[in-house]
Design goal:
This protein has helices spanning 2-19, 21-24, 32-45, 55-77, 89-99, 101-110, 124-127, 129-157, 165-168, 175-206, 229-246, 249-278, 283-305, 313-343, 347-356, 378-387, 437-444, 475-487, 491-494; strands at 216-217, 226-227, 360-369, 389-401, 413-417, 422-429, 456-466, 502-510. With 511 residues, the protein is α/β, with parallel strands linked by helices. It has 2 domains: 2-79 and 116-246, no CATH class; 345-510, no CATH class.
Amino acid sequence: MFLGDSMITPAISVLSAVEGLNLATPAFEHFVVPLTIVILTLLFVVQRRGTARVASFFGPVMAIWFVVLALTGLLHISDDPGVLLAINPYYAVSFVLGHGTIGLVTLGAVFLAVTGGEALYADLGHFGRKPIQIAWMAFVLPALVINYFGQGALVLANPAAIENPFYRLVPDSLLLPTIVLATAATVIASQAVITGAYSLVGQAIQLGMLPRVAIMHTSASQAGQIYIPRVNMVLFIGVLLLVGLFRSSSHLASAYGIAVTTTMVVDGSLAFIVVWKLWKFKFWQAALMVVPLVIVDSTFFTANLLKLVEGGWVPLLFGATMVLLMLTWRRGTSLLAQKTRRIEVPLDTLIRSLEKSPPHIVPGTAVFLTSEPDYAPTALLHNLKHNKVLHEHNVILTVVTTDTPRVSEDERVTMTTVSPHFGRVALKFGYMEQPNVPKALAVARKHGWTFDIMSTSFFLSRRALKPAAHSGMPPWQDHLFIGMTKTASDATDFFHIPTGRVVEIGTQVTV
């Protein structure tokens, strides 16, 4: 659902900021959508440059933005100081319980005031937990609360301000500069969720839930700053479709509310599992810690479900599509591995056979990439069958993705000698790391494996898939899986293997 949020957030944020120009220039109404598209286009075009180059600009703009939020709120709290009583949750709870459906509708209407926090974890990989905790608790949250108090007091004193309470806080002479600042702030906020989408897709690929795609690192110092061209294009097309379909931030609010509340409910449920299973809390302790948060999130989710037919179906459809793609990829790769394993030969059996009847030995090192180190890779079998040679040194290489975000250099490489001509090497990478085989093999030198990259050949199996008459998936899912495999990036690029040292051997497999 966060990926859906990554499309909706830029659309609704930029639309709402640009719509503020109507207050300063009413005739601007017909230019809202075109200008929004221009701003969004520029936002997605500069993604390939990475956030590292513009981060120094982001910080000051956001600092000024939150200072302006706090100041404009402070200016109007005196309009009706009674608004400060809203800090007591008793009034919110009693209102919802006492007004039934109207209470839920109201919750859905005000929900956007509490959004944004769900995207904070997307920046954890960039800055760490402590800076975000300090910035949120000491600066961002107080500024937001003060601003909302100011809006509430203004509306209580002047009900006509309900038209646009935020911009009505601002003096007329400062309205245009505030709109420009709001537009810059929304672009930066959109950048955060777009970057989060890159991170999520990258981690899903590492965990084997999506096919490999090209991933570019945009920062030499921040490993978490990446750019995925295909994801960027999909998000850009999705954002333009949303802007064209809904054409106003108020219409998009329904879709945004569903996306965010679903994300929050899922995050809360997963947090319970983490606290209970991974942190080893007792069941009741984990429930006491997490369930109250899930109840609050579920209440907001229920309230936003009332907007399902008004646009809330959009993120649900996108989320269901992503789940379908991931389930298809997982099921397809599992069936493919099972079929491949039935025709593969155990590595130990092959080595004993080669010792009894050795082929011609050629100098150099051959590295065979495989996901099953106990079986002879298909590329090795075809090399023996067609070329009838065996390299002096043969390495069965496996790339393993761990359950941890990162792996230390000491744990990166595991080496095992199988025979005088064969050895196994396992390279471990965290799910937030980009596998780089040559760099990892350089670490292997410290473990005693001496090799010359210029006399080393990397052998890869390239499978051509065809649908089988009888498989473990419906025919339509077979074709979907085969289509997904065709979109996958080449293993050579994904693992950063020198293209001049790669030998690919093709095989046909039915799935």
